[in-house]
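Bench notes, afternoon.
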Amino acid sequence: MRRNPTILAVTGLGAAPGFGFRFLSGLVALALIVLGPEPLTQASAAEELRIGPGDVVNVVVAGRTDLTGKYTVGADGQLFLPLVGGVDAKGKTARELSADLSRRLSVFDRDITRVDVSIAQSLSLNILVLGAVTRPGKYAFAKLPNIWEAIGEAGGPVEDAVLSAVEIIPGDPSSGRGVVVVNVESALREGRLDQLSQVKPGDTIRVPRQSSTSVALTPNTVFVFGAVVRPGMLNLERGGDLIGALARSGGPSPDASLSNIEIVRKSGAQTIPLKANLREYLGKGNTSGNPLLRPGDAIFVPHIRPGGSGWANAVRTIMPLATLAVSIVAISRR
């Protein structure tokens, strides 16, 4: 049963000067966060990607290390595997190719009941990102990105970017698709990144620039990304702290690492990386674990991955947001 996320927002922001009240409100907020809404599910973009010539696929055959490995699709669309020889892979999804290989290999070895296929590198999926981004150009993706992921790959938006009217221009004129205008800014504010339009192979993304009459974005904005239910932009209220921002983002996902939260803060021309241990605040009352936020802060909650480096993933994810934060602050000072 889903619980009312509005309660989370009110409780998480219930800051008071007294430490006892802040500590108690933090405990209540964490309890509501953990018992809050279930994380939103997002369909895998890779499932829609069709395999093409030159693509590299990972093939995992349970119990057969001699068949497991990376294979390159030939110019004719054929994938060659031991035992079965050439298999037509062009135009198939990873799931379709997996089913085909399972059927073919089971003829030679009845113990083979499952073959997992994933696309390691796609040469056929190139997206052109133009306009108000840091590094305009053509980018190759291993899976179909949504529009924000493509903008992030290009370094993120620049100061005068208009994220409320980003265009997706179809790369295939015969597809019957028209130009789509996407309000990325609204999706970021409302935490609807999972609903953003996906781009297709060969598409062009154009991020327009602001004119002198454009309406400036609010400077009181923070960004929450990573292992939370609703990542995106939030309006920072006076006295807003970390736990409040997480609560308003729907709470952390079950695999969130609350002891290794990263915050990227802009100070002039410098980027300051900060770390916060929210468990220290909730367990011991250490206020450094629940810092007050500043406009433009980008918060990254890492996923718990054994042996993984949360900070490396954080930098890759939130640097586009840090760029956008500079833009918002700069616009507000005009």
